[in-house]
Amino acid sequence: MSWAGKILRVDLTAGTVKNEPLNMQWAQAYLGSRGLGTKYFVEEVDAKVDPLSPENKIIWATGPLTGTMASTGGRYTVITKGPLTGTIACGNSGGYWGAELKMAGWDMVIFEGKSPKPVYLYINDDVAELRDAAHIWGKSVWETEETLKKTLQDPLTRISGIGKAGENLVLFAAVVNDLHRAAGRSGVGAVMGSKNLKAIAVRGTIGVGNIRDPKAFMKVVAEKKKILADNAVTGQGLPIYGTQVLMNVINEVGAIPTRNHRDNQFEGAKDISAEAMATPRKTDGKKHLVTNQACFGCTIACGRISKMDENHFTIINKPQYRGASGGLEYESAWSLGAVNGVNDLEALQYANMLCNEQGIDPITFGATVAAVMELYEMGVLTKEQVGIEANFGSAQALAFLAEETINGRGFGIEIGQGSKRLTAKYGHPELSMSSKGQEFPAYDARAIQGIGLAYATSNRGGCHLRGYTIASEVLGIPVKTDPLESQGKPELVKAFQDATAAFDSSGLCLFTTFAWGLADLAPQMAAACGEQFTTEELEKIGERIWNMEREFNNRAGFTKADDSLPERLTSTDGACKTGPAKGKFNELATMLPKYYEVRGWDPEGRPTAATRERLSL
Amino acid sequence: MQKVLHINADKCTGCRQCEMACSFENYGVFATAKSRIKVFDFHYTGKKVPYTCTQCDEAWCLHACPVEAITVDRATGAKVVNEATCVGCKVCTIACPFGTINYVQETGKVQKCDLCGGEPACAEACPTAAITYIDANWTGLSKMEQWADKLSNQSTAV
Questions:
Q1: What residues in A contact B40, CB-CB < 8 Å?
Q2: Is a pLDDT exceeding 90 seen at residue A445?
């Protein structure tokens, strides 16, 4: 077992909450979290549904290992149809909330319909009810957490919810839990807002007690924790430097998209790197980085907790930003920094805090600002329109636009639509650095071939977390492949995508895969859930999940034409200007047909009958 | 040799492995709510601090108990609650200055850290050695060593 065996179904329209047994047949076939939540979703929701309509549903799902002593067992996933992309949307988060839901005795919560007025769901073990959220509607994520803990008179309650951005239907609004952990991408927060659902407050005291073989489980999780501790990345790099360990590494291989992908190396990378965070500032002699922080059950502890310079221009007279707070991670340092040409570390942390405070995805936000800055430099957008001089490199513009976006003011309203819609509106759709409408993260697809294919084929739009080939192409994990070479990448991308789907669905963190393969996950799953979870079975489950997501997108109307990258990344005109990848562009056209073949899809990117049968779809 | 749980909060990452290990040891479930050791997050400073019973020699809880349900484990020095004797009066929870003995609604008894009979599960589970189980007379040893090391690196002071 190790599944709680129960789900909550909440009808927001009717205001009712029902208890249902978990479909154990599906649990065996799709594990939990991303896989199982998506299975429920695709079975219940029409792929053509308008993401912001009451007919869309939204699911919070834990995995079978969530809430256990398996390292990193604190993850949960939010699944819905995404308003930014129109694809399946699926945001994964750590912190403590997911484990709390599991310890309250629930595998997942399914919301349907739309509440007539703002509500939040309160779960206290077996008891769950919708409550009036009038007193927290309009409040930030941080204020909501503080207020609800007071309202409920329980400081141990965990909260997952939205800030103003989700209420305002910002298309990349995030669901945030525990102040600064987020199901960040694809706009899951906007779907929550569209349903008048502000938060889910959970207190779980029952615990997770149905491990199949507790003795074997405790033994194997201890062995696997040792592997994480002994590994250079999970035992040293991530706890000491965080994901920011990558900033200088990726810059050296010429793969930091800079100034909206005009450039592929950032001259200011060292100023916004892990090393910069750990060096005393010239201004006040204090370090930016305060400490690292683990999520629930995590023995890696990559999270960053930082404190800003109190005299930085962004927070003068704003004492609420002086405390320690989450950030910067590599992705946010890049999306708020390099891609906008901004090298002011303090300004990046300020913008990052605003993203957490009101719940928006810093990747899409920052990448959209990059498109705005390019349009501004081209003269398409003016100071009057944007509200500030918005040249690349302007920390003032970054901070101002972050404030406008989280508060739904001025030009921030347009930024809140994401770069695809914004650039199209101003006549330059080619400047949106996105796939399926979701902006790319911090790795240049021209300098790293496989990641470009992973972006183009990601089921939730441009994303590094659906097939992190950087591990192989840059870091040599599990084997080194040449980032400049496109041959062999379709196979590599498929293997990463399938393994990732299995890890995501187990309830553990993807970051364990720097040290673990599915062969390390399998015995933990077997001890907790059942002997049938072998390495081969997990591979197959991962592939099944990938194909299920793909078929949903196909039914939603996506085709081969959407498995694309912008011309800037695939043509000689946009080729890398500097570094080891100089002259390179992404060879997607060569890789894509081979990828379909490896996947067992027809030339139009649809799973063949044989593939569907092999995967029991 | 008597040993004690020693906490170095600077090393704590806030992962709650200790809380899960505690609840698993005592109740067979992973339930941080049932743990006898708790990790506190101080968001404004970023500090994470594990906290549990320090096993006072002259234990307030032991002296306050009207039915002598709390006794000393001779082997470990732990103050142990005898559930069969405890009447759930909660006087010990008032007497303890540190809040580390608490009532459990489900059982109608109090619970506190009993050092797991000499092999504390929390210390075993802690991935960063923020919680260790060490010689009671030498909890300062590693700090002394750090300062001694500093001294050894100085050139002759005259």
A1: none
A2: yes
